[in-house]
């Protein structure tokens, strides 16, 4: 069996640079590494509906945004399969069988579900679909026989839950499912990029995101108004780099070569940080440097996006072809699952003969 990737995102908004350093950039590298036999990237619209049932139009409108973000980051439909979750009915069927292998108390202990329930004020009015989405996520992963799931660390409990379901299924019914491994981002600063205001998380409602689709001047405006060290008032003041968002972004984006190009007075980020800590280095200079780096990274993404934006029907065609291919794979897995569960009655001639014999002996 080869190496297979499955991962995806909920289409609830445009993707931002946190998604980019946290996952998209890595996906493109994995795609181009040639190490994987198949790469499936899913737009998880059905999962997005589990907590957006009052706003299905938001999910519907963001399918194309996420698809454009994927393609513009360099995911190549010739090398990976981009598809839409709701178009693969086999995923729901698998979920229904997996539901028997998971208890309510186990779901209640899932840290992601727990914190999202708290965040959304769901308490006991939690929709059943939302409560059970870890099971549906296990179906997403196992349907494609994924060996590798590149995701952010917030998804760790989901992968653990999937592994448990796989082990349980295989022990009850026989080895039919592949146990996946999580693949976390390799740079610590990329685990979770804070918002431009210094808040722990980028979120649309806080207005603290830099989007991949933001135009150049918008990115610059956002960078120049970023949160830094509130006690670093005069240029000559010593400053803190820990918890200073501009430096956190530099940790995530900056390479040594960037200094040669944009800030030749320093060799690397450590030197820049030392100067900031000592005092004598102004925020504006550091922000300008970060802006140059971000613009260089985002420029090809913006360019590719423009090309795809000019041909939206082609993007839907990519998604349709991807969904067809994904469904064929999921159908194969489902067939194996039903065989393992021995609920493939009509293909199981021995079973039919056995029933026939049973009745014959009663004659
Ligand atoms: N839960 C993921 C998120 O919120 C999206 C997702 C759905 C996913 N199914 C998946 C990720 C399967 C990895 C594998 O972003």
Automatic annotation (TrEMBL):
Q: Tell me which EC number(s) this protein carries.
A: 6.1.1.2
**Does the keyword Aminoacyl-tRNA synthetase belong to this entry?**
yes
Q: Name one GO molecular function term.
A: tryptophan-tRNA ligase activity
Q: Return the Pfam families for the record.
A: tRNA-synt_1b
* Similarity comment: Belongs to the class-I aminoacyl-tRNA synthetase family.
Q: What is the lineage of its organism?
A: Bacteria, Bacillati, Bacillota, Clostridia, Lachnospirales
> By its UniProt entry, which CDD domains does this protein fall under?
TrpRS_core (cd00806)
Q: Which reaction does it catalyse?
A: tRNA(Trp) + L-tryptophan + ATP = L-tryptophyl-tRNA(Trp) + AMP + diphosphate + H(+)
GO terms in the biological process aspect are: tryptophanyl-tRNA aminoacylation
* Name of the molecule in the record: Tryptophan--tRNA ligase
Q: What SUPFAM superfamilies does this protein's entry cite? A: Nucleotidylyl transferase
Which organism is this protein's natural source? Answer: Lacrimispora celerecrescens
Presence of the UniProt keyword Lyase in the record: no
The terms describing its cellular component in GO are: cytosol
Q: Which InterPro entries match?
A: aa-tRNA-synth_I_CS, aa-tRNA-synth_Ic, Rossmann-like_a/b/a_fold, Trp-tRNA-ligase, Trp-tRNA_synthetase
- Provide the alphabetized UniProt keywords: Aminoacyl-tRNA synthetase, ATP-binding, Ligase, Nucleotide-binding, Protein biosynthesis
Q: Which Gene3D superfamilies does the UniProt record give?
A: HUPs, Tyrosyl-Transfer RNA Synthetase
């Amino acid at each position: 069996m080869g190496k297979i990737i499955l991962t995806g995102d909920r289409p609830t908004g445009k993707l931002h640079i946190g998604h980019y350093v946290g996952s998209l950039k890595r996906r493109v590298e994995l795609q181009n590494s040639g190490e994987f036999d198949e790469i499936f990237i899913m737009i998880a619209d059905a999962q997005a509906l589990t907590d957006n049932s009052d706003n299905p139009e938001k999910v519907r409108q963001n399918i194309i945004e996420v698809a454009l973000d994927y393609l513009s980051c360099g995911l190549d439909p010739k090398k990976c399969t981009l598809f839409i979750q709701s178009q693969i009915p086999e995923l729901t069927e698998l979920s229904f069988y997996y539901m028997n292998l998971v208890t309510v108390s186990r779901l209640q202990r899932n840290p992601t579900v727990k914190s999202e329930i708290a965040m959304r004020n769901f308490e006991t009015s939690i929709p059943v679909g939302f409560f059970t989405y870890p099971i549906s996520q296990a179906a997403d992963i196992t349907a494609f026989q994924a060996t590798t799931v590149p995701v952010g660390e917030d998804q760790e409990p989901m992968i653990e839950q999937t592994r448990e379901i796989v082990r349980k299924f295989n022990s009850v019914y026989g080895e039919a499912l592949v146990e996946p491994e999580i693949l976390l981002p390799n740079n610590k600063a990329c685990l979770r990029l804070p918002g431009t205001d210094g808040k722990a998380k980028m979120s649309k409602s806080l207005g603290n995101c830099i989007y991949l689709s933001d135009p150049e001047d918008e990115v610059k405006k956002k960078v120049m108004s970023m949160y830094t060290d509130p006690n670093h008032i005069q240029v000559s003041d010593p400053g803190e780099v820990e918890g200073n968002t501009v430096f956190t972004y530099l940790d995530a984006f900056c390479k040594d070569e960037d200094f040669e190009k944009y800030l030749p007075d320093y060799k690397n980020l450590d030197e820049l940080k030392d100067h900031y800590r000592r005092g004598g280095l102004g925020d504006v200079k550091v922000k300008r440097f970060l802006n140059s780096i971000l613009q260089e990274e985002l420029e090809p993404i913006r360019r590719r996006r423009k090309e795809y934006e000019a041909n939206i029907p082609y993007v839907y065609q990519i998604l349709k072809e991807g969904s067809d291919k994904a469904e064929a794979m999921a159908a194969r897995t489902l067939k194996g699952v039903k065989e393992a569960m021995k609920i493939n009655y009509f293909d199981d001639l021995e079973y039919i003969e056995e029933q026939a014999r049973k009745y014959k002996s009663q004659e």
